[in-house]
Amino acid sequence: MKKPSVATSAVVTAAVAGVVACMTAASGQTDGAAAPNGVKIPPGYRDWRLISVAHEEGSLNDLRAILGTEVAINASREGQRPYPDGTIIARLAWSYDPLAESEKAFGHLQSYVAGPPKNGVQFMVKDSQKYASTGGWGFAQFDDGKPADEAMQNACFPCHQAAKARDFVFNRYSP
Amino acid sequence: MKKPSVATSAVVTAAVAGVVACMTAASGQTDGAAAPNGVKIPPGYRDWRLISVAHEEGSLNDLRAILGTEVAINASREGQRPYPDGTIIARLAWSYDPLAESEKAFGHLQSYVAGPPKNGVQFMVKDSQKYASTGGWGFAQFDDGKPADEAMQNACFPCHQAAKARDFVFNRYSP
Questions:
Q1: Residues of B in contact with A104 (CB under 8 A)
Q2: How many other C-beta atoms can be found within 10 angstroms of the C-beta atom of residue B65?
Q3: Residue B79 CB: number of other CB atoms within 10 A?
Q4: DSSP per residue, A64-84
Q5: Contact B66/B45 with Cβ under 8 angstroms?
Q6: Among B97, B101, B109, B53, which Cα is nearest to A67's?
Q7: How do the pLDDT tens digits run along chain B, 175 residues long?
Q8: Please, what sign has the CA dihedral across residues A18, A19, A23, A26?
Q9: A106 closest CB neighbour out of B50, B58, B64
Q10: Radius of gyration over alpha carbons of chain A, in Å?
Q11: Cβ of B95: how many Cβ atoms within 10 Å?
Q12: Preceding peptide of A82 cis, ω within 30°
């Protein structure tokens, strides 16, 4: 049998690379650094749809939005517990800032809006086999695109135990 | 020429109806009651993407999310002012409620989450010709799917004058 030419080999290599890239993207993982448990920042998470919103007082002092993949949105909205493998939930947060025009609009300050990003971005990735030791979820936080320190990463699951009855997820879908 | 049969006429009628329905959906307007200025609840608005979040204290006492169409998201993110015709921005809001598990998670109550829907849903629809008298925007509020009373509808633009420098839009895109 004739050996494949260099050109053919190049085409095959490129095709394989394309498939790998496609599979990587489909798995929702970027090429940035991973958290110790392997979770990476999912590409395009900022364009996911909204599950809910929240405000943290105290030292966090932020306004936050919970976004989710298609699987996450559907499970959240339909109350499916436990969440199915493949669910990814993102927690974005921003500085809790007064709205400059609030006094002019209402006669007094009462409006608070999202300022610059704050407190990193957090993800919960459901894989009941891979993350069995942490309730089936891979928890990870990223600050400025890099995994947060180990102490922060290890703090996620113990805190989320408080929501164990709801598959470790604090948020609820807001219609 | 032979007259069309009843069957043919029925097919034609159905086809026309289908086109009208398609055009109606494409225009972003549902079949529900319209506000006095003609704005209707755009279909599928809950599935639009997130522009920003906010908290209103005072009598409103809610957590809110600003969602937008593709055109709105792009203009918001890129700082395009004035917003282009066709922009639609939605303001959803929910009751500002303490999170039951907050004390267990943090040792004290500090987390506030979205409870039931509250304060209706509001839309801003950009059409600089049609809504020239209100800054180019059609403002409308709907409570439980029905247009809010006239006093409420008329209150939108005067309040939004406080954001005139930003094409009457208070929110900013949150990255």
A1: 162
A2: 23
A3: 9
A4: EEEEE-HHHHHHHHHT-SSPP
A5: no
A6: B53
A7: 555 566 566 555 555 544 444 444 444 455 689 999 999 999 999 999 999 999 999 999 999 999 999 999 999 999 999 999 999 999 999 999 999 998 888 888 899 999 999 999 999 999 999 999 999 999 999 999 999 999 999 999 999 999 999 999 999 999 9
A8: positive
A9: B58
A10: 20
A11: 16
A12: yes
Residue showing tokens 């500085």: A95
Contacts of A9 (CB under 8 A, 6+ apart): none
Q: Are A59 and B111 in contact (CB under 8 A)?
A: no
Q: What is the ipTM of this complex?
A: 0.83
- Pair B93, B62: CB distance under 8 Å: yes
Site of tokens 């987390």: B111
Q: Which residue has the tokens 């400059």?
A: A100
Residues of A with CB under 8 A from a CB of B: 46-50, 52-58, 60, 63-65, 67, 92, 94, 96, 99, 101, 104-106, 108, 110-114, 117, 159-160, 162-163, 170-172, 174-175
Alpha-carbon distance of A174 to A113, in angstroms, equals 19
CA dist B124 and B144 (Å) reads: 18
Nearest Cα neighbor of B92 from A164, A53, A150 is A53
Residues 6+ apart with CB under 8 A from A118: A61, A62, A93, A94, A95
Six token digits for residue A118? 């704050």
Give residue for tokens 């629809």.
B125
- Taking a C-beta distance cutoff of 8 angstroms, is the pair A174, A52 a contact? yes
Q: What are phi and psi of A131, to 5 degrees?
A: -110, 35
Residue from B42, B72, B64 nearest B142 by CA: B42
Cis peptide leading into residue B117 (ω within 30°):
no
- Nearest-Cα residue of chain A relative to residue B120: A175
pTM value? 0.83
Which residue in this structure is represented by tokens 């639609």? B88
